[in-house]
Hints:
By secondary structure, this protein is mainly α. Helices cover 73% and strands 0% of the residues. The chain has helices spanning 10-38, 45-52, 56-62, 66-89, 95-112, 114-123, 127-145, 154-173, 182-196, 201-212, 216-235. Helix 5 (95-112) crosses helix 10 (201-212). The relative contact order is 0.13.
Amino acid sequence: MVCKPNCATGGERLAVRSDGLQTEKRILQACVRLFLENGYHQTTMLQILKEAQVSSSSFQNLFHSKDGVLMELVKFMFENQFGIARNVAGAALPPVYVYAAETALQITLTELNENLREIYLEAYTQEHLLDYIQRATAQELYRIFGPYQPELTEQDFYELEFGSAGLMRGYMANPCTADFTLEQKLNKFVTLALRGYKVPEDELQKVLAFLVGLDMRSIAQSVMEEVFRQLAMRYEFSLDGLLPGGRNKQS
């Protein structure tokens, strides 16, 4: 077959895909850095295009909008959180401890950095992002809390997650103070959530005691450093000086 002038060869198609992948990486690199430095809302499209050295049309072809980049980052973070929480809770403990550790980690992470808090709040606010979180979480909820309410289906837990996601956002949105410490915040959130999922009171108290025994700030700091190391490895960039606990840490 004779290839027409506008017919790309196999090598040319590979080159185009490679160029697209490199462009995607540069955009994600730029956005992670800018979101952590400036905050999600304060980061403009002009800043992203300049930092990533890409055209507006190239960006549009890959992500359509700044929200598209946020979706990619949120998926990466949430896909890793339950696995990390399982390591925190330990293999010997019941799954309810994993839920407590994972949700406690999420809340604690928002206390490490105000720009990180903004990213999480945006994830729990934008309709398409929230829907992704709720559907992904519902599967875990069904696995964890199904034994406490065997009459419920995964769809039921998806609908229950509407409430627990709102509860999560509410606690994330209100920073800790001297009168409302992190320990108090985690205790209240976990108590409300586990009672809502019909966890027996004696088991609930054991879970709360387990959380009290953890240094959640140190664990969250280590977890976030690991998540961002994985993110940096995936997209081939460095976040030196930008990790929560570095120069952006809030007092």
